[in-house]
Amino acid sequence: MQTLAWTAISLGVLTALIIAADESRYPQDMKIMNVVWPVTGLYFPLIGLHFYRALGRPFATHAPHAGGNGVFLSALHCGAGCVLGDVVAVALFGPGFATEFAFAYIFGIAFQYIPIRAMRDVSPATALWDAIKADTLSLLAFELGMFGWMAIARFWLSEAAAPASIVFWFTMQIAMIAGFATTYPANWLLVKWGVKGGM
After folding, report:
1. Which of 9, 7, 27 lies closest to 169 in space, CA to CA?
2. Using 50, 70 and 90 to split pLDDT, how confident is the model at 68?
3. How far is residue 143's CA from residue 150's CA, in Å, rounded to a whole number?
């Protein structure tokens, strides 16, 4: 398990670094995506690089568009905010569902607020309310998948409860993929209902 964990985490870091290096030459039109793509690489080792090359790199030179890929990108965008919030919470306070959720929510709303303010001529209060409407359901869905997996992992693997263990971070990596799987349908519904736009 240790070898598998080290391999997966190392590949995730390598994927994130490759994406970040490419973005330094080809920055994204939507600035927040310059953060989203490397974070995606952290929890989607190697596959995240494929996602970036297929869906991220074209947006460095072409305007983003809605559609089938728009929902996928919205889910990745939501996931990145949650992932950063969860990682920061664990690093500062250790594992705890309440703390992780609070940080994930703050980061998730910020990830929505920043592009809303950049792209639309609205007041800060309106942008914040729109960010809350756009991200709350998708964030809840992400955390449900992530916390569900972590609860299972901590039950079966004692190392999955210890942040000092590489196995903990490997199970977190898998949990983030589970979170993406549960937030995708929520993002599909939010885009369909017009609560948020496909990216």
Report:
1. 9
2. very low
3. 10
